[in-house]
């Protein structure tokens, strides 16, 4: 597909490379041009080099390219960038930026958190009002020093969009100032929610709305033609299953799960939310398997994290400090978390320093579910005496599911395309049976004759049990068929040692039934409870 992307001519960046990864080509159309305000640029550089700012926030690659080469900061300052392109531009000038977890300036204040209190932040940006950003910094106790270093001027020329299969608007202003004509059959795309709102206000409903990043938007475009009704399964999709996804950086966990659901034609849920800028293992469930969420959520997690410390420390000191954090620790969720910020205890099972490169520390951590790695980095920095923040994070394991078994969205899409074309085996390596989600839970294997009654909600008696592992009364137990199919999750009514298979008496109450009634023939009559002949 040939895509026309609205950009300032100075900001085309690596659009072509990103599009190529999705099998598309692109070209830039420019409804706006940037006119630099050299005087404002000079004032900002002079103030920054005089040590006027505790932090500098770059909202796009253009001011980064203009300002960064002129900076010679007399004291350390936190450098923050929106998006990887802006970060790369700063790195080319020798700066060490941290990248916002998402792609919106509204996330700056939540990302910086308590650090903003009493700090001055320099912001070189376009002459476009953003009062919400300034107010958020003020509300956090900081002082925003905004320098409007360039104007956005409409080009006034008609855009060359007629030859494109799709037109992607990358900002609200690029849409509102554009002169263009939509041809029949042309796909119109908004890169994010703000752009989409501007388009809808003008009476243009976008065919695709992205997550604010080019990568996430192109992924959404790829899925546009493959949406199905939630009740219309793709051929070969079972009634329940798990898909282990290698979530990319950019889109939210909810968006990634939704894309998988659209490809398979099913309603989905996911276990263990990852922030948009965090990649790695995300378990997506559909059908009755969504009832496994409480089990999957409590499983151990493993992450690899790049942490940036704010001062110098040698590897031996870092490793010694890391060892002190193995065991039970106290944590309070970060300010940007959606949960209540109450103090909680979590266990760090292992924390290994993998590499130290200057002030960037790469470590692997195995931890309890619900551990906040962003908070862990902050506390490691305090213990080192340097301060620190999380720069990049990847989840490498969730329970028994590891990153080497996780599938990219492209791999899932390819399998779905093959399945739709009649390849019945295409999904066999994509969809996992629900039983794999129970991990190392205690379990009971039951007779075939007992399964249908359980599927109708009946309690399990010892006479229906073939084998069992150790568990205590009140534990959550997985009930399996002889074929290793997951029948249900249930609450143990007695200790496993309190009965033998074949004994009378009730031993388990179903809590979450995974198997459809009628999968196995009824083995007991309704009236007497006696086994059929």
From TrEMBL:
Residues 442-515 form the PUA domain. Could be responsible for synthesis of pseudouridine from uracil-55 in the psi GC loop of transfer RNAs. The gene is truB. Coiled coil: none annotated. Pfam families: HEM4 (PF02602), PUA (PF01472), TruB_C_2 (PF16198), TruB_N (PF01509). This is Probable tRNA pseudouridine synthase B. Gene3D superfamilies: 3.40.50.10090, Pseudouridine synthase (3.30.2350.10), PUA domain (2.30.130.10). Transmembrane segments: none annotated. Belongs to the pseudouridine synthase TruB family. Type 2 subfamily. One of its GO terms (biological process) is box H/ACA sno(s)RNA 3'-end processing. Its EC number is 5.4.99.25. InterPro entries: 4pyrrol_syn_uPrphyn_synt_sf (IPR036108), 4pyrrol_synth_uPrphyn_synth (IPR003754), Dyskerin-like (IPR012960), PsdUridine_synth_cat_dom_sf (IPR020103), PsdUridine_synth_N (IPR002501), PUA (IPR002478), PUA-like_sf (IPR015947), PUA_sf (IPR036974). It catalyses: uridine(55) in tRNA = pseudouridine(55) in tRNA. Residues 222-257 form the Dyskerin-like domain. Keywords: Isomerase, tRNA processing. GO terms for molecular function: RNA binding; tRNA pseudouridine(55) synthase activity; uroporphyrinogen-III synthase activity. It comes from Methanofollis liminatans DSM 4140. NCBIfam families: CBF5, PRK04270.1. The active site is at 275 (nucleophile).
């Amino acid at each position: 597909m040939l895509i026309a992307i609205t950009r300032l001519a100075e900001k085309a960046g690596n659009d072509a490379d990103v599009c190529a990864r999705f099998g598309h080509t692109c070209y830039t159309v420019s409804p706006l041009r940037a006119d630099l305000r050299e005087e404002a640029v000079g004032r900002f550089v002079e103030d920054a080099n005089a040590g006027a700012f505790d932090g500098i926030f770059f909202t796009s690659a253009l001011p980064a390219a203009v300002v960064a080469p002129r900076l010679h900061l007399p004291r350390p300052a936190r450098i923050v960038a929106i998006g990887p392109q802006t970060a790369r531009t700063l790195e080319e000038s020798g700066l060490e930026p941290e990248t916002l977890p998402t792609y919106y300036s509204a996330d700056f204040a939540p990302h910086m958190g308590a650090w903003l209190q009493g700090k001055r932040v320099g912001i070189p940006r376009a002459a476009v009002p953003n009062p919400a950003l300034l107010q958020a910094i003020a509300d956090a106790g900081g002082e925003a020093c905004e320098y409007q270093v360039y104007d956005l001027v409409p080009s006034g020329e008609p855009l060359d969009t007629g030859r494109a299969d799709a037109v992607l608007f990358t900002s609200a202003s690029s849409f509102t100032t554009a002169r263009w004509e939509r041809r029949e059959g042309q796909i119109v795309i908004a890169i994010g929610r703000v752009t989409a709102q501007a388009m809808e206000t003008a009476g243009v409903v976008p065919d695709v709305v992205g997550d604010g990043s080019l990568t996430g938007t192109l992924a959404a475009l790829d899925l546009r033609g493959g949406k199905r009704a939630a009740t219309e399964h793709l051929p070969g999709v079972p009634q329940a299953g798990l898909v282990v996804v290698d979530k990319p950086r950019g889109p939210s966990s909810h968006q990634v799960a939704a894309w998988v659901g659209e490809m398979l034609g099913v309603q989905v849920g996911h276990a263990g939310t990852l922030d948009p800028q965090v990649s790695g293992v995300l378990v997506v469930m559909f059908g009755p398997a969504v009832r496994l969420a409480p089990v999957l959520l409590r499983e151990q997690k493993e992450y690899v994290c790049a942490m940036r410390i704010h001062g110098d420390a040698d590897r031996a000191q870092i490793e010694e400090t890391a060892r002190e954090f193995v065991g039970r620790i106290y944590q309070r969720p970060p300010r940007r978390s959606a949960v209540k910020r109450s103090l909680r205890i979590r266990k760090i099972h292992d924390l290994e320093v993998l590499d130290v490169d200057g002030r960037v520390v790469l470590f692997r951590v195995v931890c309890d579910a619900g551990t906040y790695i962003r908070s862990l980095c902050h506390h490691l920095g305090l213990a080192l005496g340097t301060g620190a923040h999380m720069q990049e994070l990847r989840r490498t394991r969730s329970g028994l599911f590891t990153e080497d078994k996780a599938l990219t969205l492209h791999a899932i899409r390819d399998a779905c395309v093959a399945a739709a074309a009649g390849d019945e085996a295409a999904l066999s390596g994509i969809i996992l049976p629900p039983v794999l989600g129970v991990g190392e839970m205690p379990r009971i294997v039951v007779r075939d004759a007992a399964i249908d009654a359980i599927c109708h909600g009946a309690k399990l008696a010892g006479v229906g049990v073939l084998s069992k592992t150790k568990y205590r009364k009140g534990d959550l137990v997985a009930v399996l068929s002889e074929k290793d199919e997951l029948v249900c999750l249930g609450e143990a009514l007695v200790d496993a040692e309190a009965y033998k298979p074949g004994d009378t008496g009730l031993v388990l109450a179903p809590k979450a039934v995974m198997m459809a009634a009628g999968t196995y023939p009824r083995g007991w009559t309704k009236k007497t409870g006696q086994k059929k002949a």
